[in-house]
Amino acid sequence: MEIFKPGIRYEFLKISKPLFTLSALLVLGSWVAVGTIGLNFGIDFDGGSEAVLEFKEGIEVSELKTAMLEAGLEAPEVVKFGIGEADVGKYFLRTRTVNLLTDVERKALKTSVVTALGQPLIWDDSSEMGNVIRVKYAESQEHEKIKAAAVAQSSFSADELRVESAAAGSDTDFRIYLPGVKPKVERILKTKYADKFRQISKFEAVGAAVGRQMRNQGVLSVIYALLGILLYVSFRFDLRYSPGAVLALIHDVSITIGLYCVLGYEFNLPIIAALLAIVGYSLNDTIVVYDRIRESLKLGLGKNMTDSINISVSDCLSRTVLTSVTTFIAVFCIWWFGGGIIQNFAFAMLVGVLIGTYSSIYIASPAVLFMDETIKERAEEAKAKALAAGGGA
After folding, report:
1. What is the fold, at CATH topology level, of the domain defined by 12-41+209-384?
2. What is the CATH number of domain 48-99+182-206?
3. Closest to 244 measured CA to CA, from 295, 309, 303
4. What confidence tens digit (pLDDT) does each residue in 359-368 have?
């Protein structure tokens, strides 16, 4: 299917310099925004909890969110889970909270244990998730006695606590497991919605340290992808093409990240996946253009390199537009009809489709022209130096 008539030539590179300058400013602005405003990291990267709440009937989302705020959850997000009749009464909860234990509860628990069993050698309540306390004694102790001591003067019940040996067979080193976010939320929902609440069918929590590790791995995955693409394009084409391809990808990723920063949208693991998808989409479009440029050069089309690039981009314009439009429509439907959780991913893809199509024409292609001129200039300089050296001899 041809949208544009074959043989029509457009002078794309005529406006490439101002557009290239604009793109450079947008990329620079994106990284300035990241450095000053900062990204709004989701719980994947900053730590937090996720849960699926099930009720016997529908509950007002605003009412449920208020209940979670009253429970002490930080910035809770509540959305309906699923779209079918079987999913009525299901809600997805996200919060940055991984620990609901207060300092008063921690102090009361320690006082209770010390009063009953004496001062331990080690009392460590600095676990990342906040619900595990390590206690070590010089003499042997019993699990039940430690549990009874923990319950005696604290606000916890025997059902909420669990005591285990820190190592197999140890009778001096123990871990006290306290109720985390899930049991506390469960208790509150059972109290507030006694005849409506069913269960928490899914619960996951991510600590801050794990979040930082996932963040670093996500950044590295994008960097490794760009390096791999640089090597791939270098082998498939030559030095004139590979810098432009990588430059276009850095351009696409940078502007997408900058938009998330300026708009304050949540940045999490699905967005890393979207960035990698953008890299793949943009590279595919760039490779198509590069193949056509190489073919045009072999056939001798065009008076010069600029003319060859304009001919090549014009020839594959119908394919580029069709691919971009159909992809954009599909992703737009996901963004428009999808829930709040998937909308961030779809938004990144929407931006990526537009930016990727633009960069393959106005970033990657002009870069080929620049590299071609640079290589020719250096070759001429080297030739001139060689002649000068020969003449001097």
Report:
1. Multidrug efflux transporter AcrB transmembrane fold (1.20.1640)
2. 3.30.70.260
3. 309
4. 999 999 999 8
